[in-house]
Batch of 2 targets.
Target 1
Amino acid sequence: MNDGISLIELILNASVAVQMVMLILLILSIVSWVIIVQRWLVLSSAQKGVFGFEQRFWSGMDLSQLYKEGSQMQQDNVPVVGMENIFRAGFKEFMRLRQQGSVDGEAILEGAQRAMRVAYSREEEKLEKHLAFLATVGSVSPYVGLFGTVIGIMNAFLGLAAQAQATLQVVAPGIAEALFATGMGLFAAIPAVVAFNRYSSLLDNVTSGYITFTDEFSSILHRQIHTN
Amino acid sequence: MNNMFNNLVIFNGYPFSVIVAVTFHSLILVLLIWMQSRSTTERLELIQPTVIKALFIDENPQTLNRQAAERRAADEAQRELQRRQQEQQEQQEQQERQRRQDAEQAEEFQRAALRKRDELEAQRQLERSRERERAELEQQRQRDLAEAERRRVAEEAENQRQELARAEGARTELELIQSATAIIQLAVQQVWNRPPSARNGMRAILQIRMLPTGELLEARITESSGDPAFDRSAENAVYSAAPFIELRNLPINIFNSNFRILSLIFQPEDLLN
């Protein structure tokens, strides 16, 4: 009592319910950080990919040449991601329909656009993956922490009721442990909320880039159909 | 660089992310524990000032009576000793005088008897006997003196020993009283709730009566501080601090003379106002 309670002692002496809450919050925090780092890698690489591919696309390179480069990359086990996937899906469908010959121009363009839309939604799904988990952690973990706090304080007061003489030393460790649960909840929630907001805006950026690219590419295809 | 980055994205960056997250959390945990341990080593120690002065006023008539009786007895013994010494001296002197008279008488008688016979012979004999007697007397006196001296020295040593023993007993008794006093003082101090009207320098004296088991029989305010709330708080403190179980270990005579009736002074000196 005289010398202070260390943090480890505080956690080890906590009641089972509070310990469970702390454990859950620790796992939530670790998982949310895994997702934060992983999403950061994916989203930043997607953003870089958008700029890189747009540069290549608008460099005046022949489109079939660009498609062949992509195929070469796939053979070399280098993943083809993002905007390039959309381009490849649209271009592949366009070429295939054109080779059949009998189909009229509007149908070819429609088919290419449909293929690009599918590729776009697949890409968007890939980018959005796990972001919902971050949102959940951000909104729920404060409540989980609060739950631990309520149980901890309840235990502290029950202990106080058993005591004949109420002193601060009886309640203090219980309240400290209870508050520690809230602290952990906030600790898990704050980065998750910040990352979720940041990544949502990043995702909007990237997907709007994809949509713009899809429109531009279909206009190019449209021009190609009508010039022939 | 770009290649490595792409390789990370092949596995969607999961292993890397897991390593980063776990490292981050363990780092934070270690930091927290380290900070905690540092803060515990630098903790300030709170020193509580003395709350009350529980002083003992020795008002026990029993003790006073006993002390007075002891003093009187000691005086009497001293006087008795002096008188005995004087008597001895007188006796010795008387004996000496008697002996000298006896010797003179014998001399006279011998002289008268011997005068009838040969005067020279008588003279010589007389001289010889007188000499012998004188030597004997001298020896006797010396022996008496040595005896008296020895007796005096022995008596003095005995006196000294008695005095020393008495002082030792008093010291251990004083220690016992002091430790018991400290215990009572601390116990009362801990439970004394001063009312908000208490001021530094207020003073209330309580007389408490206790049983040898340490139980409190009665607490009475003998000198009020002038503030009834203050007096009541002092009284309550004494009642809630009782019983003083430690008093059971005291020898009964010490308890009777010091703790049966006890006065406590309540005088706060640590208040901020």
Target 2
Amino acid sequence: MTALAPTTAADTRHPSATPRLTRWLLRLHRPALYVWAGLVIVLSAALLWLGGPLTDAAGAAWEQYNACGEAPTCVYDQPSIIRYKDVYSVTTFAVLTAPFLVAAWAGATLTSRELETGTAQLTWTQSVSPVRWLTVRLAAPAALVAAGTGLLVALHHLAWSAGEGRIRTAKSWSDFPTFYAGGIVTVALALLGLVVGVLVGLLWHRSLPALATSVAATAGAFTLVNLALPHLWPSVTRVTTRTQGAPSGGGLTVEQGILTSTGARLPDPYCGGDVFPDCRATYDGLDAVGYYHDYHPLSHYWPLQLTATALTLAIGALLVFAAFRVLRSRTGGAPRRGRTTAV
Amino acid sequence: MTSSAIEATGLAKTFRRRGGWALRDCTFQLPAGRVCALVGPNGAGKSTLLALAAGLIAPSEGSVTVLGGHPAHVRPRVGFVSQDKPLHPQLTVAETLRMGADLNPDSWDAATAERVVAGGELDLGARVRSLSGGQRTRVALALALAKRPELLLLDEPMAALDPLARHELMGTLMATAAQYGTTIVMSSHVMAELEDSCDHLLLIGDGRVRLSGDTDDLLAAHALITGPARGAAAPADFDLAPHTTVESRVTGRQVTALVRPEGPLPAGWQTRELSLEDLVLAHLRNPAAPPLTLGALPASASPQEATSASAMSQETTA
């Protein structure tokens, strides 16, 4: 009875063509592709309308309003201003939903449903390795998501900047929705949503729970990035005396409070300022000599956007790594071949 | 030299969610070019074994070599049809076949795919979701056969088919397999479905290999014998040593036993015709019967299997 040596006829077929997986991924998710394309087109059109005609009309209305000066009655195109505000709010909100839409779709369909119904395994028993299957499921949607979201945030940024200095009620750069909807960090968040959906799908294999988990996890990641945001770049400190009052306005606040004569920082009791005798007594009791305000000025816009994007992408990269690890532990992966195949 | 289609050594798989062993310490060797029946009760580990061989899941212990390589390296040369025949419901039959061609760029044989599908009066433009169970099976088989695999793994391929469709598809399957010299491993718990077409048997029960070998050799290694009960009421009262008893039953004054003879049978016992189904059923009813592996074993067989193999060599020399 002789033991059989492993046969060496294993590599008689030389792989010449690579399986065309992307084409079929797009075919299988055609409805989602159409919805995404439709969403991007409609939203882009709305943002162009907002940045062009709506901004012009609202800007003209504000000029009329400013021309009135102190006059008791003023005739100006108020509906234009309101329409600008409404469309701005709606489009900003819509751009911000992109990461969650992507996470919901990816969680519900991209990996979970295929593993649930066994079509993933069907693909793996064609001439497609699980690693390649997952790579295509990450890469192709990532390209489409990045392109779509990238276009939307760029148009939002343009629409927002068109109103700068012309529309008095235009949002500040540090306004939470404005910062994200018009910033590159949202592109990274949408990609993160995709990766989260793919990973959760690999772990759960069930469409509906994976959808909910993906959206929740993306919201969690969004919150995390937003909490980290003020600390991603060194802030600027402004100090004012008690008579000057608490510093107001300007940029993204990191921290604020009162300063004592020794330079110690204390939380502001917010009692109203020196004009109130009670408050004066409180400040005296605390040995307060002034106020401090750590904040990010407008010049920190790009450093903040880029560091937040880098942070988000770093989290995404970790999750991609985790996804491949999960897949590998499930399918066993492919060990390095003993000998290389000549092509 | 015969090459082997599948070699398993100490193969084991546990599923964390279910707990317990789905498959444990499986060592066997399946020669290439065979049509192998993979038999066992529900939950025996048949599907797990096939999924391991197809490179869909990773073993918890041991290893499996398929066509001389790691399962992950031989995907283009192995076909697999799983029990629930997953297909993309939104694609049409024609699209499904085109997808097969795109995903198997080196080996796709469109003529085979069309031939397998043509037998079922299938509308190529019909969506997969609208197909009947039999039609789905046909499309799944077409996908697996048209990649011209050297090894075809089929998990209960004919379940939920009516007898006519079953017969007809089995014919298509065997003809195509014969044309390419494909090795087939087919699981089922319906023995009749496999008896005519299989020449190799792998019986697993409770996650372990119970019987493995050429069907003729396995049948030759067993004897179904009848003899007088001589007053004994329970099978336990019989001692047929040195023969290994798989199963014995007392009916009236007669005893029927399935044994693995270790030499000439005792006088007064009659040998009866033994079918593969009898053999399988006797082993399924008696989980305590010692496992038997005939034929070559993988190089690094575990001691337990080596013992049963040496027991066999004693039998053949006796």
